[in-house]
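Weekly sync, protein design subgroup
Attendees: M.S., D.O., the rotation student, P.L. (late)

Item 1: inverse folding check
M.S. brought a backbone from last month's batch and wanted to see whether the design step gives back something sensible before we order anything. D.O. pointed out we never logged the input encoding, so this time it goes straight into the notes. Structure tokens as presented (244 positions):
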């Protein structure tokens, strides 16, 4: 065996299992560690010696895990959701002084990456925006990391948050940087997002649908292979690896 040594944290979850299968399917990567608290693989020491650790644990434990991986001097690819500006600042503080890279990826789907990039580019031409994100009913958090990142990236456009009187609390969703985000959780869905941008007399809609988790595999492999070439510290999103 040869190539980059890869450890997967959250290895028994849906995305962790997918990542293990993806790494084992290619010749230039070697799966050398699996970590899954609460299962038989509940030993973080199994990750020692990894060149890259992919983190897919639940949001409530991910920061503790990142502290462990930093001490192991591994590059880290974070796929766990829920990294808003506050949590990203926390990761940047954690990574201060490290020569290794931490790549936080809100969405590994290449189509979703392009969706967020397009939204950021066209946002200055509109006065208001709203995001509807739709996920399966087992998703642990809301809003999704993709929706949060989309709103934050459109923020420099200076949107005005359109206010309404809520007859029921929460009807307007959550306001993030002037963008209202609406989260839908239903069985039968996987991962979907609509971005609606409005001006007087017109609306532009961008929609992306992930219909199978295999859509995430190319992005996961790109992140693992190229994270080591990023500048030291914390990088957010696949865009720098795709030349966007």
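Designed sequence read out in the meeting:
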């Amino acid at each position: 065996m040869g190539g980059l040594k890869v450890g997967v944290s959250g290895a028994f979850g849906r995305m962790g299992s997918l990542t293990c299968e993806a790494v084992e399917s290619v010749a230039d990567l070697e799966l050398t560690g699996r970590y899954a608290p609460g299962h038989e693989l509940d030993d973080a020491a199994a990750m020692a010696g990894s060149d890259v650790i992919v983190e897919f644990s639940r949001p409530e434990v991910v920061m503790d895990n990142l502290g462990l991986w930093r001490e192991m001097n591994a590059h880290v690819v974070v796929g766990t959701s829920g990294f808003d500006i506050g949590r990203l600042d926390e990761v940047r503080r954690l990574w201060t002084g490290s020569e290794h890279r931490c790549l936080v990826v809100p969405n590994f789907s290449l189509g979703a990456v392009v969706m967020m990039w397009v939204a950021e580019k066209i946002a200055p031409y509109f006065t208001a925006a709203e995001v509807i994100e739709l996920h399966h009913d087992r998703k642990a958090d809301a809003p999704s990391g993709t929706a949060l990142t989309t709103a934050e990236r459109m923020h420099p456009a200076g949107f005005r948050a359109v206010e309404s009187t809520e007859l029921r609390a929460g009807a307007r969703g959550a306001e993030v940087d002037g963008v209202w985000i609406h989260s839908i959780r239903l069985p039968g869905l996987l991962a979907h997002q609509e971005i609606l941008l409005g001006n007087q007399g017109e609306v532009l809609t961008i929609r992306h649908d992930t219909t199978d988790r295999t859509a995430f595999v190319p992005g996961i492999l790109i992140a693992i292979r190229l994270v080591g070439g990023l500048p030291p510290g914390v990088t957010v999103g696949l865009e720098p690896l795709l030349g966007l």
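Discussion: The chain has two domains: 4-108+214-242, 110-212. The mean pLDDT is 93.
Action: P.L. to compare against the previous round before Friday.
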